[in-house]
Design a protein that fits this description.
The protein is of the alpha+beta class and 316 residues long. Helices cover 45% and strands 9% of the residues.
């Protein structure tokens, strides 16, 4: 995701000296040595921060300049601070890459203090401003209700009734297909192309979901994030996912607001006192719309295993 602009001006172009060593191959155009060194087998999670390192490195390789070198260094530092275990497991060529960046003049910045981005009460205020839109999402039809809702659910008849009404309306079905197509394209963008999810894509999905008055967990989560972002000023808003071993039946997508910077994604107990879980899909099947890290709306598809969107380093 796009990093914030770097403050100040750093002039890194230096005249070559006879003693200067040849530039590292890691910075050469099209070189994938570092990218290959951090890859694991299919199904292995790769954090959004690592993806940002790879994306920034590709940009530097394509059009080398001092600013892009610094952006790679900043992305590495952010990855090291937020995902130390992943760094330890996949950082075999990280020292070599950092040395190459240093030779280009990139500097290591002072580490920021790990504090929540939000003030006390901030997440609650954001929820209050966004609640009408979130509750509307929670009132829509759940398109995969027949997979996840059992007849012993007290709201079973109501939930299936909404699904049946949706299934008889060609315009709503077409709108839902548009939402799914956009979500599927976003998934390809994230997993294959290592590109972050853009706010524009989420807004397009939200529009299609509103037209369909229906959705699955991913399209509803993107729509909820878009709704929260419309009312947001200073809160961290993320779309997170839990992926289990059994594919669709153990996959879930939801929104978290107010997670503390520097906390560990897979350890909700580290998220800080202001974090909230927003899950409109849960509301469509009779569960709570909002929960806490200790009591999420859907507790058996928890904790999150990956980040799909984070507005602290996003693309618009």
């Amino acid at each position: 995701m796009a990093l914030p602009a770097i403050g100040g001006h750093i002039h890194l172009n230096r005249p070559a000296s006879p003693q200067q060593t040849e530039a590292s191959p890691l910075l050469a155009k099209g070189n994938k040595l570092f990218e290959q060194s951090v890859k694991r087998g299919i199904g292995h999670f790769q954090s959004s921060d690592l993806k940002q390192v790879i994306s920034a490195l590709r940009q530097l390789q394509s059009v080398p300049d001092s600013g892009k070198a610094q952006r790679v260094q900043d992305a590495i530092q952010h990855w090291e601070q937020h995902h130390p275990k992943e760094v330890a497991a996949r950082g075999a060529r990280l020292t070599e890459l950092k040395q190459a960046l240093a030779e280009q003049g990139a500097i290591t910045r002072a580490a920021p203090r790990h504090e929540p981005k939000v003030m006390a009460g901030g997440t609650q205020a954001l929820l209050q401003k966004s609640m009408a839109g979130l509750e509307k999402l929670g009132s829509y039809a759940c398109t995969d209700a027949q997979t996840f809702v059992q007849p012993n659910n007290p709201s079973y008849q109501k939930i299936i009734g909404k699904l049946n009404a949706f299934g008889q309306d060609p315009q709503r079905l077409a709108a839902n297909q548009r939402a799914n197509n956009s979500a599927n394209m976003a998934a390809i963008q994230i997993t294959r192309n290592k590109q972050p999810l853009s706010l524009r894509t989420m807004e397009n999905i939200a529009k299609a979901v509103d037209d369909a008055k229906a959705g699955c967990c991913s399209t509803l989560a993107y729509s909820a994030a878009a709704e929260l972002l419309r009312h947001n000023s200073d809160q961290r808003i993320e779309v997170l996912a839990h992926r289990g071993a059994q594919g669709h039946a153990q996959t879930h997508c939801f929104v978290v607001i107010g997670r503390a910077e520097g906390s560990e994604l897979t350890k909700p107990e580290s998220w800080g006192p202001h974090a909230k879980v927003v899950d409109p899909w849960a509301a469509t099947i009779g569960a709570p719309l909002v929960g806490t890290p200790a009591r999420p709306p859907i507790a058996n598809l928890w904790p999150p295993t990956e980040s799909v969107f984070d507005n602290t380093h996003r693309e618009d």
